[in-house]
Amino acid sequence: MAAAFSDREVPSLRETALALAERELSAYEPVLQAVRLPKDDPTRSERLDSALSAAADSPLEIARLAAEVENLARDLAARGNRTLEGDANTAAELASAARRAAARLAEINLSARPNDPRLAEAKRLGA
Which pLDDT tens digits describe the chain residue by residue (127 residues)? Predict the structure, then answer.
């Protein structure tokens, strides 16, 4: 709700997004390390599965945060200052794109885990 949206939320959302983006920078490195293991290494499959599972966490959190920003921006566009409607709509569209892209990354990383509840969440967030 725009009425509940405070100036304190923006820095908090921004700080959270920056922290998640920083975490995402190195989240895939363990996957690359596991892929580089010899194919006959007995730990390769388990390490790859574990690394892909862990690599899904940060983009899934980014998708959740982007969904929150998207909802706030859409509400602001609908009920906020008319002179800022275009900016709010643009923010909503950018947040929507970020939500879908991050959810798709999580979905790809979880594709080998069909029973993982995060996969269903990633699919829902990516829709």
Answer: 344 455 557 779 999 999 999 999 999 999 999 999 999 999 999 999 999 999 999 999 999 999 999 999 999 999 989 999 999 999 999 999 999 999 999 999 999 999 999 999 999 999 9
Residue 4 placed within a domain? no
> What is the DSSP-derived secondary structure letter of residue 116?
-
Cα–Cα nearest to 50, from 62, 25, 33: 33
Structure tokens at 37: 């293991």
For residue 72, give both structure tokens. 């706030």
Residue ranges making up the domain that contains 16: 9-32+42-126
Query: Minimal CA–CA distance to 76: which of 15, 26, 28, 10?
Result: 10
Which three-class secondary structure state does DSSP give residue 49?
helix
**In a domain? residue 121:** yes
In a domain, 37, yes or no: no
